[in-house]
Amino acid sequence: MRKEMKSMSRKDLTERKKELELELMKERAMSEVAGSVKNPGRIRHVRHTIARINTLLNKKGGE
Question: Which residue from 2, 50, 1 is spatially nearest to 25, judged by alpha carbons?
């Protein structure tokens, strides 16, 4: 996944980031409502992926 993200354009990365932020919001809402989540590691994974995308966007912005 990391290699795929490196080859993506800024526009694609921004779109992917928006999708992940929406998914993160849904996961957090489900954890608040239900009290527990089927896969609690998913929230962490999504957060880390968003951070990776932010890093790539910053690197591409400097080019």
Answer: 50
Three-class SS of 11-26: HHHHHHHHHHHHHHHH
Condensed to tens digits (0 to 9), the pLDDT of residues 20-45 reads: 999 999 999 988 888 777 888 999 99
Architecture of domain 2-58: Orthogonal Bundle (1.10)
Q: Where are the domains of the chain?
A: 2-58
Return the exposure string of 11-38: e unless at least 16 CB atoms fall within 10 Å of the residue's CB, then b.
Answer: eebeebbeebeeebeebeeeeeeeeeee
* Cα angle 51-39-33, degrees, rounded to a multiple of 5: 95
